[in-house]
Amino acid sequence: MMLVMADHEHPERDQPISGPPAIRPPGPPPAGVPGDEQWRQFQEFQRFQEFQRTQGELPEGPSPRRRRPLWLRVLLNRWFRRLVFLLVVLLALSWAYDHYFGNPDEDKPASETGGQRTKNTLLFATSAKEAVRAFYDNVAQDIAKDACGRLETLEVEDQFARHFNAPDCVSAIHRLHGEVEKGQVNNYAEVRVPITVDLTPGADGTVVVSSCDLEVVGGPRLGRFTLRVIPESRGQQWIISRHEAESSPCPADASPPTG
């Protein structure tokens, strides 16, 4: 006799056939967010963040560090700062030396420094007439250094100082400036050289100008000048190579000057 096995021996056959199980969106739910509803809300939030990133509202992770521009990196460089500091120190030392010790050539006569300096630079007048006018202007303005610098040698400076009873050229210029009448400084500085004054160089290349032949207003006459061109000077610059005393006031008939 054939035994029929009851269906309860295969319980899985009693279960109704259903479709495939529901698939959860990829990835496990984050810790602390249980249940399907919470997981759905979490993914909605992620999609919202992704939308914001596509709109440029949120950066995707940390932004790369911007590289400093070259000029800023140079300025911040330690060796560059040291170099700048050293340069400033050297400039300060140079200024201090010039300020407190001066240029050793500044007080030398033109015969020692003018010849070299005037090769490329205009330091003196380019005519005998303007050289004499410049000397009067220096006395009018009491610029002793420039006035004495127009005398070629220390010997000429001593000649000039002796002729005006002064210990040195600078003292003579200060004394003569004191004799210029008040209110007449400009007139004295603009001494006039008449066209009758012969400014033609002699055989030795010099020009002689007597203050007695000049129209001098408001101050003392400054004697007789012998001038010559500084050799190799740019623009043929003139300098006073000799000074002679003249009587004051000038005689009507000029007598030979005394040395």
What are the main properties of this structure?
259 residues, mainly alpha, 9 helices, 7% strand, disordered N terminus
Q: Can you tell me about this structure?
A:
- This protein has a domain at 123-244.
- Strand 2 (224-229) and strand 3 (238-244) form a beta hairpin.
- The protein has helices at 36-54, 70-76, 78-101, 110-117, 128-141, 144-149, 154-163, 169-178, 185-189; strands at residues 207-210, 224-229, 238-244.
- Helix 5 (128-141) crosses helix 8 and helix 7 (154-163) packs parallel to helix 8.
- The longest helix has 24 residues, at 78-101.
- By secondary structure, the chain is mostly helical.
- A three-stranded antiparallel sheet has the order 1-2-3.
Give the helices and strands, then pairings.
Blueprint: H1 36-54, H2 70-76, H3 78-101, H4 110-117, H5 128-141, H6 144-149, H7 154-163, H8 169-178, H9 185-189, E1 207-210, E2 224-229, E3 238-244
Antiparallel strand pairs: 1-2, 2-3
Helix pairs in contact: 5-8, 7-8
Distance between the termini: 175 Å
**Largest sheet properties:** 3 strands, antiparallel
Strand element count = 3
Strand order of the largest sheet: 1-2-3
Kindly report the average pLDDT value.
79
What share of residues are in beta strands?
Answer: 5-15%
The SSE string, one letter per element, is HHHHHHHHHEEE
User: Unreliable stretches, pLDDT < 50, 5 or more residues?
Assistant: 1-8
Can you tell me the overall shape?
rod-shaped
Radius of gyration: 51 Å
